Amino acid sequence: MRNAAAIMKAASDLGMPVAAQLIGVQASIGESTLRVIDFGDGAGPDSRGLFQQRDSWGPYADRMDPAKSSALFFKALQRVEGWESLEPTIAIHRAQRNADPNHYTRFRPQATEIVKALGGEAAALVDPSGACPAAGNEVVGDLAGKWVRPMAESINTSGYGPRAAPAGTAGGVLANFHYGIDFATPGHAGTIVAVTDMKIVKVRNLDGLFGTGVTGQTTDGKLTIGMYHMEAGSVRVKEGDTVAAGTPLGTEGATGNVTGRHLHMEFFAGALPNPMIPINATIDPTPILKEKGIL
Ligand SMILES: [Zn+2]
After folding, report:
1. How far is the CA of 228 from the centre of ligand 1 (A)?
2. From 14, 109, 179, 267, which residue has the greatest number of CB atoms within 10 Å?
């Protein structure tokens, strides 16, 4: 934890945001499990320290020093164009120039927990997607409490509950249980709409797991609903907006940990500002959607 704190401090000393601190911790878990390693590996016999930096990164003493090696990493990250809007593992991959661009994805949840534990209030609000969406406060449409299908011509393709992990998706805790319900539109990318009146509390951009999508709280405060895997750049609402049932939110896509285009919806009990931090327990949306005439 001391090394994680040194990484976070190095980022803030350079005037970089919490999102950078999280990326630094994520990178170091992936390189050294946050240890100052004094030996190399097959790919880089001269790799050293928290970030496994090779000779070309700087003097041995700097690469073995948590603060100095972190600063070397963050300066490399600053040189990655648009790192703030990249998927975090891609931003790290470009800074580190390692072999596998997806190597760091699986260390994101652990890095999030560490940054939250060390960073207090400000860090608790950090978005694992690393994106910084603009704030909005519009009210769109007539809030009448009704429910509609999430996509007009869609079919329900997968239900909530245990299932084998789809081939080609990342494993881990998400492997053998489907935490949501899927809809897909045959033949074309559907328009995803708000299933009921909701306040948008989270917009994600190219998150490694959930891709691009939105999370909303129902206006009665009883449910939080996530709608994910939208087309990149297609989200039409902003955090803080309140939207009526049927308001277009974005376009069905295949971003995140998926094998094909579809909408994945997750339901949580109560009004959660950001249900991914920490990972909260989902509820089965089936009875709710049946009662509302959607299934
Ligand atoms: Zn799904």
Report:
1. 8
2. 267
Q: In terms of CATH, what superfamily is 139-291? A: Glucose Permease (Domain IIA) (2.70.70.10)
Q: How far is ligand 1, taken at its centre, from the CA of residue 166, in Å?
A: 10
pTM recorded for the entire structure: 0.58
Q: Ligand 1 centroid to 257 CA: how many Å?
A: 10
Residue 204 alpha carbon to ligand 1 centre in Å: 16
Domain chopping of the chain, boundaries: 2-124, 139-291
What 3-state DSSP class applies to 178? strand
Q: Each residue's pLDDT tens digit in the chain (295 positions)?
A: 899 999 999 998 998 877 888 899 999 999 999 999 998 887 789 999 999 999 999 999 999 999 999 999 999 999 998 887 778 899 999 999 998 999 998 998 888 778 877 764 455 445 544 444 445 678 888 888 899 999 999 999 999 988 877 766 655 545 678 889 999 999 999 999 999 999 999 898 887 778 899 999 999 999 999 999 999 889 999 989 999 999 999 999 998 888 899 999 999 999 887 776 656 678 999 999 999 999 9
Taking CA atoms, 126 is separated from 93, 111, 117, in Å, by 21, 11, 12
Distance 159 CA to ligand 1 centre (A): 8
User: How much distance in Å is there from the Cα of 263 to the middle of ligand 1?
Assistant: 7
Q: Cα separation of 221 and 218, whole Å?
A: 5
